[in-house]
Amino acid sequence: MGVEGQDKAKVLEAGASAVSGQLGKTVQRLRKTYNLSLSELSEQSGVAKSIISQIERNETNPTLATIWRLAQALDVTIDRVLQAAEDEPFVEKTSKGDTPILVSEDGRCRLAIIGWIKTVDWLQWYDFQAEPGGTLDSEAHQRGSIECLSVIEGELDVEVAGAFERARAGETLRYRCDRPHTIRNRSETSARATMVCILKAAVME
Fold first, then answer.
1. pTM of structure
2. Are 134 and 175 members of one domain?
């Protein structure tokens, strides 16, 4: 299916929020490492104390100019401010309520976007659920794209360019998705699968 249009905007918005949250944690960590108060960091950076406080609490999305001023005051690069500390373990958690959901036109298929925002342009993955009779029609993705559908529960049919194939629980279908393709649940029970879309940028020639 891929993330396009308004759906991609929702994903990017969620990603921006995640980046903003990491920024706040890093600014606070560096400020405390240098034993700086909010007032002292404000004085050295030229960024209002209230703004720094909001950044640390993830209550605002600062401009690039603000991030640059904070980076200069903390004597680090902008990249460093936007990254987690190298010596910290990488553990990122997304709650169920923060996971974007896409719904098919017939309202019977739901895709929870569980992929990482940083890979959305070349790798996308979803938790796919289809009620009985549910159909998900997707337009062609960029040339060379491959989709992998691993069925966890029930069974699903895939149609690509006139070719049909069915997968049951424990089976995986891989197919070119750079042409219109359809996933259907023809059974009388619900189906669930993991869907991974590998776009052209990640396909090795």
1. 0.58
2. yes
CA–CA distance, 19 with 25 (Å, rounded to integer)? 10
DSSP 3-state assignment of 151?
strand
Parent domain of 40: 5-82
Q: Where are the beta strands (DSSP E) in 37-189?
A: 101-103, 109-113, 123-130, 135-138, 146-153, 155-160, 163-168, 172-176, 181-184
CB atoms within 10 A of CB 32: 10
Tens of pLDDT, residue by residue over 21-70, are 678 888 888 888 778 899 999 999 999 999 999 988 888 888 888 888 88
Cα–Cα nearest to 111, from 103, 121, 119: 103
Pick the closest to residue 195 from 140, 123, 126 (CA basis): 126
Find the CATH number of the domain harbouring 101: 2.60.120.10
**How far, in Å, are 23, 33, 70, 122, 201 from residue 14 at the CA level?**
14, 29, 23, 17, 22
Specify the CATH number for the domain of residue 14: 1.10.260.40
Question: Is 90 within a domain?
Answer: no
> In terms of domains, do 62 and 109 share one?
no
Q: Tell me how many domains the chain contains.
A: 2
Ramachandran area for residue 2 (φ above 0: left; ψ -120 to 50: alpha; else beta): left
Closest by Cα among 200, 197, 205 to 148: 197
